[in-house]
Amino acid sequence: MRTEKLILVYAKTEDLNTKQESEVKNMTNEQSNPASSSKLVQTNKGIAVASATGTQSGEDLSKSFAMTTRLDAVIAWGRKNALWPLPYGTACCGIELMSVMGPKYDLARFGAEVVRFSPRQSDLLLVAGTITEKMAPILVRIYRQMLEPKYVLSMGACASSGGFYRSYHVLQGCDLVIPVDVYVPGCPPTPEAVLDGVMALQKMIASGQPRPWKDNWKAPDYE
Q1: Do the beta carbons of residue 143 and residue 187 sit within 8 Å?
Q2: Contact 125, 144 (CB under 8 A)
Q3: What is the structure's pLDDT at 150?
Q4: DSSP H helical segments within the chain, as ranges?
Q5: Residue 104 confidence (pLDDT)
Q6: Which domains does the chain have, with CATH numbers?
Q7: Are the C-beta atoms of residues 155 and 182 closer than 8 Å to each other?
Protein backbone atom coordinates (compact mmCIF):
# COMPACT_ATOMS: atom_id res chain seq x y z
CA MET A 1 0.00 0.00 0.00
CA ARG A 2 1.38 3.37 -0.98
CA THR A 3 1.83 5.82 1.84
CA GLU A 4 2.42 9.56 1.61
CA LYS A 5 3.46 11.36 4.75
CA LEU A 6 5.41 14.50 5.48
CA ILE A 7 7.68 14.05 8.46
CA LEU A 8 9.74 16.94 9.81
CA VAL A 9 11.91 19.70 8.44
CA TYR A 10 13.93 21.66 10.96
CA ALA A 11 17.36 22.23 9.46
CA LYS A 12 18.09 25.51 7.71
CA THR A 13 19.04 25.59 4.05
CA GLU A 14 22.50 26.94 4.79
CA ASP A 15 23.21 23.84 6.89
CA LEU A 16 23.10 21.66 3.78
CA ASN A 17 25.99 21.14 1.45
CA THR A 18 25.67 21.10 -2.34
CA LYS A 19 25.02 17.36 -2.60
CA GLN A 20 22.39 17.47 0.13
CA GLU A 21 20.66 20.44 -1.48
CA SER A 22 20.33 18.53 -4.75
CA GLU A 23 18.85 15.55 -2.89
CA VAL A 24 16.33 17.80 -1.19
CA LYS A 25 15.27 19.33 -4.52
CA ASN A 26 14.88 15.87 -6.06
CA MET A 27 12.54 14.79 -3.26
CA THR A 28 9.64 16.59 -4.91
CA ASN A 29 10.10 14.72 -8.18
CA GLU A 30 10.46 11.39 -6.41
CA GLN A 31 7.06 11.77 -4.74
CA SER A 32 5.39 11.07 -8.08
CA ASN A 33 7.20 7.71 -8.30
CA PRO A 34 5.31 4.99 -6.37
CA ALA A 35 8.42 2.80 -6.21
CA SER A 36 10.54 5.36 -4.36
CA SER A 37 11.34 4.60 -0.76
CA SER A 38 11.69 6.85 2.24
CA LYS A 39 14.92 8.80 2.44
CA LEU A 40 16.56 10.88 5.11
CA VAL A 41 19.04 13.67 4.38
CA GLN A 42 21.55 13.84 7.20
CA THR A 43 23.25 17.08 8.19
CA ASN A 44 25.60 18.04 10.95
CA LYS A 45 22.60 19.31 12.88
CA GLY A 46 20.29 16.36 12.40
CA ILE A 47 17.62 15.26 9.96
CA ALA A 48 16.79 17.88 7.35
CA VAL A 49 14.10 16.32 5.17
CA ALA A 50 12.30 13.00 5.21
CA SER A 51 10.56 11.86 2.05
CA ALA A 52 7.80 9.48 2.99
CA THR A 53 6.56 8.40 -0.41
CA GLY A 54 6.99 4.73 -1.14
CA THR A 55 6.08 1.25 -0.09
CA GLN A 56 7.63 1.30 3.36
CA SER A 57 5.24 0.10 6.01
CA GLY A 58 3.50 2.59 8.24
CA GLU A 59 4.94 0.89 11.31
CA ASP A 60 8.49 1.55 10.16
CA LEU A 61 7.68 5.14 9.32
CA SER A 62 6.06 5.73 12.68
CA LYS A 63 9.29 4.90 14.49
CA SER A 64 10.90 8.06 13.17
CA PHE A 65 8.19 10.66 13.54
CA ALA A 66 4.92 9.49 15.08
CA MET A 67 3.54 9.57 18.58
CA THR A 68 0.43 8.06 20.07
CA THR A 69 -2.09 9.97 22.12
CA ARG A 70 -5.82 10.38 22.65
CA LEU A 71 -7.89 12.75 20.57
CA ASP A 72 -9.50 14.39 23.58
CA ALA A 73 -6.05 14.94 25.13
CA VAL A 74 -4.84 16.73 22.00
CA ILE A 75 -7.97 18.90 21.92
CA ALA A 76 -7.58 19.75 25.62
CA TRP A 77 -3.92 20.60 25.07
CA GLY A 78 -4.88 23.03 22.32
CA ARG A 79 -7.64 24.62 24.38
CA LYS A 80 -5.58 25.19 27.50
CA ASN A 81 -2.75 26.81 25.53
CA ALA A 82 -4.97 29.04 23.40
CA LEU A 83 -7.25 30.90 25.80
CA TRP A 84 -8.67 34.17 24.46
CA PRO A 85 -9.56 36.31 27.49
CA LEU A 86 -12.10 39.08 27.68
CA PRO A 87 -11.06 41.46 30.50
CA TYR A 88 -14.09 42.77 32.35
CA GLY A 89 -12.31 45.28 34.57
CA THR A 90 -14.49 47.59 36.62
CA ALA A 91 -12.23 48.71 39.48
CA CYS A 92 -8.66 48.56 40.79
CA CYS A 93 -8.38 44.86 39.89
CA GLY A 94 -8.57 45.90 36.25
CA ILE A 95 -5.43 48.00 36.71
CA GLU A 96 -3.69 45.06 38.35
CA LEU A 97 -4.73 42.87 35.44
CA MET A 98 -2.86 45.14 33.05
CA SER A 99 0.44 44.28 34.72
CA VAL A 100 -0.26 40.57 34.18
CA MET A 101 -0.34 41.25 30.44
CA GLY A 102 2.88 43.26 30.59
CA PRO A 103 6.42 42.06 29.87
CA LYS A 104 7.38 41.42 33.49
CA TYR A 105 4.81 38.70 34.13
CA ASP A 106 3.94 38.02 30.48
CA LEU A 107 0.70 36.08 30.30
CA ALA A 108 1.72 35.19 26.74
CA ARG A 109 3.86 32.40 28.20
CA PHE A 110 0.63 30.59 28.95
CA GLY A 111 -0.99 31.26 25.58
CA ALA A 112 -3.59 33.68 26.96
CA GLU A 113 -2.35 37.01 25.64
CA VAL A 114 -4.82 37.32 22.76
CA VAL A 115 -7.13 39.77 24.51
CA ARG A 116 -10.45 40.26 22.81
CA PHE A 117 -13.04 42.86 23.72
CA SER A 118 -15.80 41.05 21.89
CA PRO A 119 -17.53 38.13 23.64
CA ARG A 120 -18.00 36.37 20.30
CA GLN A 121 -14.21 36.07 19.99
CA SER A 122 -13.46 35.06 23.60
CA ASP A 123 -13.62 31.93 25.68
CA LEU A 124 -12.24 33.18 29.03
CA LEU A 125 -14.07 35.88 30.99
CA LEU A 126 -11.84 37.70 33.49
CA VAL A 127 -14.14 39.43 35.96
CA ALA A 128 -11.88 41.98 37.67
CA GLY A 129 -13.65 44.39 39.97
CA THR A 130 -16.90 45.29 41.64
CA ILE A 131 -20.14 44.19 39.99
CA THR A 132 -23.20 46.25 40.84
CA GLU A 133 -26.77 45.04 40.62
CA LYS A 134 -27.40 47.22 37.56
CA MET A 135 -24.32 45.75 35.88
CA ALA A 136 -25.35 42.13 36.45
CA PRO A 137 -27.66 41.85 33.38
CA ILE A 138 -24.85 43.14 31.14
CA LEU A 139 -22.42 40.58 32.59
CA VAL A 140 -24.91 37.78 31.95
CA ARG A 141 -25.44 38.94 28.37
CA ILE A 142 -21.70 39.00 27.71
CA TYR A 143 -21.30 35.51 29.18
CA ARG A 144 -24.10 34.09 27.05
CA GLN A 145 -22.52 35.53 23.88
CA MET A 146 -19.13 33.93 24.50
CA LEU A 147 -17.87 30.92 22.58
CA GLU A 148 -18.17 27.37 23.87
CA PRO A 149 -16.40 25.93 25.73
CA LYS A 150 -16.11 29.03 27.91
CA TYR A 151 -14.57 29.66 31.29
CA VAL A 152 -14.78 32.33 33.99
CA LEU A 153 -12.06 33.54 36.34
CA SER A 154 -13.18 35.75 39.23
CA MET A 155 -10.34 38.10 40.15
CA GLY A 156 -10.31 39.77 43.56
CA ALA A 157 -12.53 39.95 46.60
CA CYS A 158 -15.11 42.30 45.08
CA ALA A 159 -15.81 40.07 42.07
CA SER A 160 -15.81 36.91 44.19
CA SER A 161 -17.83 38.02 47.21
CA GLY A 162 -18.65 41.72 46.97
CA GLY A 163 -15.54 42.65 48.96
CA PHE A 164 -16.09 45.31 51.61
CA TYR A 165 -19.13 46.67 49.78
CA ARG A 166 -21.84 45.17 51.97
CA SER A 167 -24.45 47.31 50.30
CA TYR A 168 -27.75 46.88 48.52
CA HIS A 169 -26.40 48.03 45.16
CA VAL A 170 -23.38 45.67 44.96
CA LEU A 171 -23.69 42.07 43.81
CA GLN A 172 -22.25 39.82 46.52
CA GLY A 173 -20.24 37.71 44.12
CA CYS A 174 -20.49 37.34 40.34
CA ASP A 175 -21.19 33.63 40.82
CA LEU A 176 -24.74 34.63 41.75
CA VAL A 177 -25.45 35.27 38.08
CA ILE A 178 -22.78 33.37 36.09
CA PRO A 179 -20.85 30.13 36.78
CA VAL A 180 -17.28 30.71 38.00
CA ASP A 181 -14.48 28.18 37.48
CA VAL A 182 -11.57 29.76 39.37
CA TYR A 183 -11.53 32.26 42.24
CA VAL A 184 -8.41 34.41 42.79
CA PRO A 185 -8.48 36.01 46.26
CA GLY A 186 -6.93 39.35 47.13
CA CYS A 187 -7.71 43.05 47.21
CA PRO A 188 -6.30 43.37 44.68
CA PRO A 189 -4.63 40.01 43.99
CA THR A 190 -1.00 40.03 42.94
CA PRO A 191 -0.05 39.24 39.33
CA GLU A 192 1.49 36.00 40.57
CA ALA A 193 -1.88 35.00 42.04
CA VAL A 194 -3.61 35.69 38.73
CA LEU A 195 -1.04 33.58 36.89
CA ASP A 196 -1.62 30.81 39.40
CA GLY A 197 -5.35 31.05 38.71
CA VAL A 198 -4.77 30.75 34.97
CA MET A 199 -2.53 27.72 35.54
CA ALA A 200 -5.21 26.14 37.74
CA LEU A 201 -7.72 26.67 34.95
CA GLN A 202 -5.33 25.09 32.46
CA LYS A 203 -5.02 22.02 34.66
CA MET A 204 -8.79 21.82 34.85
CA ILE A 205 -9.08 21.96 31.05
CA ALA A 206 -6.29 19.43 30.49
CA SER A 207 -7.77 16.90 32.91
CA GLY A 208 -11.30 17.26 31.57
CA GLN A 209 -12.63 17.91 35.07
CA PRO A 210 -16.44 17.93 35.23
CA ARG A 211 -17.98 21.33 35.83
CA PRO A 212 -21.41 20.79 37.37
CA TRP A 213 -21.66 24.46 38.34
CA LYS A 214 -21.73 25.31 34.63
CA ASP A 215 -23.80 22.36 33.47
CA ASN A 216 -26.54 23.14 35.99
CA TRP A 217 -26.42 26.92 35.46
CA LYS A 218 -29.60 28.69 34.51
CA ALA A 219 -29.48 32.23 33.23
CA PRO A 220 -31.28 34.77 35.41
CA ASP A 221 -34.47 36.16 33.94
CA TYR A 222 -33.27 39.65 33.19
CA GLU A 223 -34.76 39.91 29.68
Answers
A1: no
A2: no
A3: 92
A4: 18-30, 58-65, 71-80, 92-101, 136-145, 157-161, 191-207, 212-215
A5: 86
A6: 13-68 (no CATH), 75-215 (3.40.50.12280)
A7: no
Flag residues of the chain having pLDDT under 70.
1-68, 223
Amino acid letter at 150?
Answer: K
Q: How far apart are CA 5 and CA 144, in angstroms?
A: 42
**27: exposed, middle or buried (C-beta count within 10 Å: 0-12, 13-18, 19+)?**
middle
Helices (H), 66-190: 71-80, 92-101, 136-145, 157-161
63 residue type, one letter: K
Do 198 and 112 form a contact (C-beta atoms < 8 A)? yes
Predicted confidence (pLDDT) per residue in 104-114, tens digit: 888 888 888 88
Residue 125, beta-bridge partner list: 86, 152
Q: Report the DSSP pairing between strands 124-128 and 151-155.
A: parallel
User: Bridge-partner residues for 127, per DSSP?
Assistant: 88, 154
With beta carbons less than 8 A apart as the criterion, state whether 206 and 171 touch.
Answer: no
Q: What is the pLDDT of residue 62?
A: 55
User: What integer pLDDT is reported at residue 98 of this predicted model?
Assistant: 86
| Collapsed DSSP state (helix, strand, coil) of residue 176 | helix
| Percent of the chain clearing pLDDT 70 (strictly above) | 69
Q: Which pLDDT score is estimated for 21?
A: 54
From residue 17, alpha-carbon distances to 8, 11, 45, 48, 124 in Å are: 19, 12, 12, 11, 49
